[in-house]
Prior knowledge:
Layout lengths: L2 E12 L2 E12 L3 E5 L6 H8 L7 E6 L2 E2 L5 H7 L1 E4 L11 H7 L9 H11 L1 H5 L10 H13 L5 E5 L7 H16 L3 E5 L3 H7 L2 E6 L2 E6 L1 H6 L1 H8 L2
Parallel strand pairs: 3-8, 3-9, 6-7, 7-8
Antiparallel strand pairs: 1-2, 1-4, 4-5, 9-10
Helix pairs in contact: 3-6
Amino acid sequence: MTALLQVQGLRAGYGAVEVLRGIDLRVGDGEAVALLGSNGAGKSTLNNVVSGLVRAWSGRIAFDGADLTRAHYRDVVRAGLIQVPEGRRIFPNLTVRENLELGAYARGRERRGQNLERALELFPRLRERAAQLAGTLSGGEQQMLAIGRGLMAEPRLLILDEPSLGLSPILVEELFALIRSLRDGGLAVLLVEQNVGQSLEVADRAYVLENGAVRFSGLPSELLGSDELRRAYLGL
């Protein structure tokens, strides 16, 4: 499978503290990859470095063959690499429609109308609340809004950072069904989650981070099939 995102030897951190210690990671075109690990393993830092929000110390990030290692985050978005961050980070004092339309600010502006319609078809509850202030939505609806806003930018790769955090079990089921549908539709997804079981059900491949380094990479069946790996890296 052609590598859409290729991360090689990536090191990064904050101040003098190294968080990522030589990360190698690949996401193929149309592939869903799960990035697993406990809090503090470096998952969100990796997302932010790939997205251009945190500078890499060394290593290389290539997206669709282009070197994005030192790229500004706006150029990363324009290339089609879109992150839906942990915590949703919607604009609470703007309406649902306005939040969605902002997703097309840097990419997909020409097709904003049709992309808006697509997002509202995916999330009928957002259509019902299009004129409502985003801050008045429930947690699950805010997560729908954050994902819909990401889709407005016509991503080639969508990074989802802890999308199930704080959601009810029913909404978690709906969320992972959506992720599976997006993958089946040909969208590449990097899924960063602590919900191990659900993540491995929708992923084509998985990586496990521990203390800023990749401790496992391979098929979900390999990870789940090894008692040693499950105990060591997943606590199962």
